Protein: AraC family transcriptional regulator
Organism: Thermoflavimicrobium daqui
Amino acid sequence: MIWVESLQKAINYMEEHLLENITIESIAKQANVSPFYFQRIFMILTNMSVGEYLRRRRLTLAAQELSRTNCKVVDIAYKYGYETPEAFSKAFRRQHGVPPSEVRKYMGKLKSYNRLVIQVKLKGAEPMHYKIVERDRFQVVGIKRKFSLNNGENYEGIPKLWDKVNQDGTSDLLFQLNNGEIKGVLGVCVDYSVSDKSMDYWVATEYHGDPPDGLSTLEIPAAKWAVFEVHGPMPHAMQKAWKQIFSEWFPSSGYQHAAVPDLEVYSDEDPSSPDLYSEIWIPVK
């Protein structure tokens, strides 16, 4: 339950500082996790980025204030963090479907995004199959790409990277090279860089030996891992498993996430197969 309390503390902090230019670093600090890890959890549980949540909440409050007060549009624009009335009007119309100048006489619907409250629901009809594995450090080889965390750019770029490696033969090469304990090709999320607000993402495989030309190496530290079975077609089955892990397993397991990259393990079977088997490896403490 400590994990749930920490996440709610971070959400409360966002709400208390909605009118300020808060950073992801300050938000994640409330939950005692890294900025990258907080953004990852938040996206999995809510299907939106932290920046999108803040934007939606600010525009929700702005609409309420416009409809209930006589404040000028320009004043409300500045209050909710927009440098120009034009930028505010564009964002407002995108969310609510009408310009802010029309709100006071508009009789239709405005779109309200309410404050998030974390709730733990008792579930158990659908079991989660996992095992705890302890491993010494090991090496993976593959390709690395850097993705910006601004405006959720990483969530757009990573699927495109997978499309590329599946088309250009890189994934086939990695399946052939695999000679480690983890069988398959890995998606590896490496933690957040504060300096440029970016993350490294690897498409790799466990491999003992010198890397072939064109591939790089990454050492995965020794850790205790919770290894979850994932059954079903991609990407739905993987997304569902991640949500279940963070919404059900972590709050009740007594484990916390350790500061080691998460691993998604993919097989070379048909990704659309209802019987496809994959894994999620999460470092725990």
Notes: The chain has a mean pLDDT of 89.
